[in-house]
């Protein structure tokens, strides 16, 4: 890590509130002082330093963020969102060890979190199945198989409902899937409404429904322990892109089984 770059970033970060006050609309030093919790002397020193380093620029109406300063404001906002997301999503983050999720957890900041408990260990599984049963189209990727009950329920729903399904499975999941429900798997492989891709490198379980996206974690027995449900466009965009990447690296199940 570049220590000087880190020190410079921390120095600018300590003045992020002043940059934010000048973001979008120019502000005089007096106006900035009114908007932030700093003394007049601190505001003067900070605005001078930020201008000298190219994060603020002077206009006839006062200071405003430069393009560099605008990037810092946006990055600071993302950091704050990430810190909030860490607290809210702790059960999911404890259940999923993934750099992909860590880098994008802030997109799930407003997600509904369904967490299994000792008194209700199947609440996350049941909620996931409720979403399945009300969907007409679903795309999902899973790196680890669920419990036998959830596999049978989900596979039966796919077979009976006629919903449009795209599955992205790891080879391990396909093998376990085949051992658990060989007849059901054979039926959906040849079903016209189902497409299956076998792909390595799926980072965690996730699904895309019509109105929401989900990210989940399972325990060692395959039972869902956490389900994050989001209707945020940013979360959908991220998971759509992730699904496309997993899909493009895969092999059609028919070719894989040859």
Automatic annotation (TrEMBL):
Alphabetized InterPro entries for the sequence: FilR1_middle_dom, HVO_A0261-like_N, WH-like_DNA-bd_sf, WH_DNA-bd_sf
Domain Methanogenesis regulatory protein FilR1 middle: 121-249
Domain HVO-A0261-like N-terminal: 7-88
Domain of life: Archaea
Name this polypeptide is given: Uncharacterized protein
Organism: Natrarchaeobius chitinivorans
């Amino acid at each position: 890590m570049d220590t000087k770059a880190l020190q410079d970033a921390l120095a600018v970060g300590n003045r992020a509130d002043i940059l934010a006050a000048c973001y979008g609309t120019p502000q005089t030093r007096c106006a900035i002082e009114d908007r932030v919790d700093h003394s007049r002397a601190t505001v003067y020193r900070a605005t001078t330093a930020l201008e000298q380093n190219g994060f603020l620029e002077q206009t006839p109406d006062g200071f405003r963020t430069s393009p560099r300063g605008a990037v810092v404001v946006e990055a600071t906002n993302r950091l704050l969102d990430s810190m909030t997301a860490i607290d809210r999503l702790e059960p999911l983050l404890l259940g999923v060890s993934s750099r992909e999720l860590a880098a994008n957890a802030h997109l799930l900041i407003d997600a509904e979190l369904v967490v299994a408990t000792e008194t209700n260990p199947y609440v996350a599984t049941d909620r996931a199945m409720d979403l399945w049963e009300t969907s007409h189209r679903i795309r999902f990727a899973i790196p680890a198989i669920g419990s036998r009950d959830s596999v049978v329920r989900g596979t039966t729903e796919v077979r009976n409902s006629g919903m449009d399904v795209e599955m992205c499975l790891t080879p391990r999941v396909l093998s376990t899937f085949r051992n658990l429900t060989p007849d059901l798997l054979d039926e959906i492989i040849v079903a016209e409404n189902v497409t299956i891709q076998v792909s390595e490198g799926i980072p965690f379980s996730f699904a895309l429904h019509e109105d929401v996206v989900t990210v989940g974690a399972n325990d060692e027995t395959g039972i869902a322990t956490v389900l994050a449900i989001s209707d945020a466009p940013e979360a959908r965009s991220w998971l759509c892109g992730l699904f496309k990447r997993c899909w493009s690296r895969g092999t059609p199940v028919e070719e894989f089984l040859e």
